[in-house]
Design goal:
Blueprint (H helix, E strand, L loop, with lengths): L7 E5 L7 H14 L6 E5 L5 H15 L5 E4 L16 H6 L4 E4 L2 H6 L4 H13 L3 E6 L3 H5 L3 H16 L6 E5 L13 H18 L1 H6 L1 E5 L7 H5 L6 E4 L6 H15 L1
Parallel strand pairs: 1-2, 1-8, 2-3, 3-4, 4-5, 5-6, 6-7, 7-8
Helix pairs in contact: 1-2, 1-11, 5-7, 7-8
The structure holds 1,3-dihydroxyacetonephosphate.
The site of 1,3-dihydroxyacetonephosphate has 14 residues, from strand 8.
């Protein structure tokens, strides 16, 4: 971590905890986050849980006299409105109380055929609507073993460089090696740091302010017992957590590790 960037710990719930159980989980996260002022905390529930999560976490913040945790959509459509059955526009997320959107997650790229150009359009739409954008990048196992990690990751970063320029702290990149997602195989802190440093250097090549402001999160099997070593790396500014974000006994210590390292 680096003192000039506030650590960001985000929980991507994927297609879990969509109803009342999601609201309960979000309240637990909000209560834990209320005593961790050095950390920005975001949860990304399924769409249907968003209004309840926003309402209840806002109430927790009022009780604790602190800023509410952020709520993110897990995806966004790039058009503002129209005949796109099943899709959600960025302005609709804003209206529901979201402040963030996750964009280009590897599961979107893999199962829904999202391409770099789609990710760029979605990122532009999210930022234009006032959301922060957490743009996901990462290589597959085959790409890593064939030595193409940086080619792939930097190609994905290049697709959003111009879009993120000027976004300040609302622009976030999540490096999530696909082989580490949901597998229990985590990148070593050194391997993760190497990729993060390469991403930071690419941002700096475009604009030094972009490199300084953009938080680069690590994601892929982050758990309570490995978070601290990852977050201690110079260019790792937080985590995008999947499975462990569904359990406050895991997510709580991850948030606290960020707080301790930042203070
Ligand atoms: P896991 O933490 O379950 O590996 O998922 C990571 C992820 O995909 C977060 O977006």
């Amino acid at each position: 971590m680096n003192a000039r960037r506030k650590p960001l710990i985000a929980g991507n719930w994927k297609m879990h905890q969509g109803g009342a159980s999601g609201v309960d989980l979000a309240v637990q996260v909000a209560r834990a986050a209320a005593v961790l002022p050095a950390v920005e905390v975001v949860v990304a529930p399924p769409y249907l849980a968003i209004p309840g999560v926003v309402r209840e976490t806002t109430e927790v913040a009022q009780q604790h006299h602190c800023a509410p945790i952020g709520v993110a959509g897990q995806n966004v459509h790039h058009e503002p409105k129209g005949a796109f059955t099943g899709e959600i526009a960025a302005s609709m997320l804003v209206e529901a109380g979201c402040r963030w959107a996750i964009i280009g997650h590897s599961e979107r790229r893999q199962y829904f055929a999202e391409q770099d150009a789609d990710v760029a359009k979605k990122t532009r739409a999210a930022l234009a609507a006032g959301l922060g954008a957490i743009v996901c990048v990462g290589e597959t196992l085959e790409e890593r073993t064939s030595g193409r990690t940086l080619d792939v990751v930097l190609r994905m970063v290049d697709a959003v460089l111009d879009v993120l320029a000027g976004a300040g702290a609302r622009g976030v990149i999540a490096y999530e090696p696909v082989w580490a997602i949901g597998t229990g195989k985590v990148a070593t802190p050194k391997d993760a740091q190497d990729v993060h440093a390469a991403i930071r250097a690419r941002l700096a090549g475009r604009d030094v302010e972009l490199a300084n402001a953009t938080r680069i999160l690590y994601g892929g099997s982050v758990k309570a017992d490995n978070a601290r070593d990852l977050l201690a790396q110079a260019d790792i500014d937080g985590a995008l957590v999947g499975g462990a974000s569904l359990d406050i006994a895991q997510f709580g210590p991850i948030m606290r590790a960020a707080q301790e390292l930042a203070s």
